[in-house]
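Researcher: I'd like a structural prediction for the single chain below. Treat it as a standalone chain; there are no partners to consider.
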Amino acid sequence: MNTLMHICCAPCANQPVAQLREEGITVTGFWYNPNIHPYTEYQARKRTLEEYAKEIGLKLVIGGAYDLRPFIIAVAGDIDHRCSYCYRTRMEKTAQYAAENGFDSFTTSLLISPYQNFEGITAAGRAAGERYGVEFLPRDFRPLFQAGQGYAREHGFYMQKYCGCIFSEEDRYMAAKRKKAARKA
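Model: Treating it as a single chain, here is the predicted structure.
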């Protein structure tokens, strides 16, 4: 089986890639993340993934460029539900590329994160797969999360502190601010 894997970052991808390869599945990486902000963050994650792909001999396709404005415009009216748009747009682009380039299936490294909505990602993947006529592999990679983080640290990967969008970065800072205020109270 020849699978296209949407990859959000190298720390999340290392264990899913390894698991699929162990199963005899040929994996090609697909970088498409128009949500990541700022540009320096986008570049750091992309560069780390490119270095990791080279290290393990993973073919990597760069699907798109830094393009924040369409993402912001799409989610501005409903920021609290931005993740569903984010999942949908990334799964759509991955499914489209997979279908147009002869892949048997596609999946995403997002499925490793205990901080992401597994059911939402899976639903977006299945819908995109149906639309483009390519199978979505809904693998639960979450049990591999800690191993993936450990691998990333051992290999000196850049490791981000938030999901990627400007709003998730804001959430991170606001949570820290609330925690600090609670300690003072």
